[in-house]
Amino acid sequence: MDFRILDASAFYAGVPFRSSEDCYTTSLVYDEIQHIKKNQDVLGTLLETNRLKIREPDKQSTQAAIKAAKETGDFPQLSKQDVSIIALGIETKGQIITDDFAISNVAKNMGLNIAPIMTKGIKDVGKWIHYCPGCKTSFKGGKECSNCGTALKRKLIK
């Protein structure tokens, strides 16, 4: 591993501020976290010293990330920023630094390298299914059972 790919939680935890390793993020994540330590312009310093690099994933990697997220059932829980981090991980094979369960689940299902920050990371990896607690019918997605109208729940199938 030559570098780390940081999602927003990595910035909130201070990872790039106490690491000498090269760090990458996407412009979507950078825009989300620009308010961090704004008075001291710490992010600007990281960019100027080339310790933080902004890189956009290519379209193919982004499409692969979306496809994988839909296959695991995590897509509804992912923001555009989250998808961009997974896509950058696919493209570069860098280590993704995150505490986000949905990012971790999709990335681990794809065989990408994930490292948690402030948690122990995810224990179980799998695919989400939606089910009706009323009539016990399973669905690929949705919010309401088409058979009985009960609100759907979801569970992780390992």
UniProtKB/TrEMBL annotation:
Q: Name one GO molecular function term.
A: RNA endonuclease activity
Q: Which InterPro entries match?
A: NOB1 (IPR039907), PIN-like_dom_sf (IPR029060), Ribonuclease_PIN (IPR033411)
What is this organism's lineage?
Answer: Archaea, Nitrososphaerota, Nitrososphaeria, Nitrosopumilales, Nitrosopumilaceae
Role this protein plays: Toxic component of a type II toxin-antitoxin (TA) system. Processes pre-16S-rRNA at its 3' end (the D-site) to yield the mature 3' end.
This chain belongs to the protein called: Endoribonuclease Nob1
In this protein, which residues make up the domain named Ribonuclease PIN? 5-91
* Keyword set, alphabetical order: Hydrolase, Metal-binding, Nuclease, Toxin-antitoxin system
Keyword set includes Nuclease: yes
BP-aspect Gene Ontology terms: maturation of SSU-rRNA
Do the record's keywords include Electron transport? no
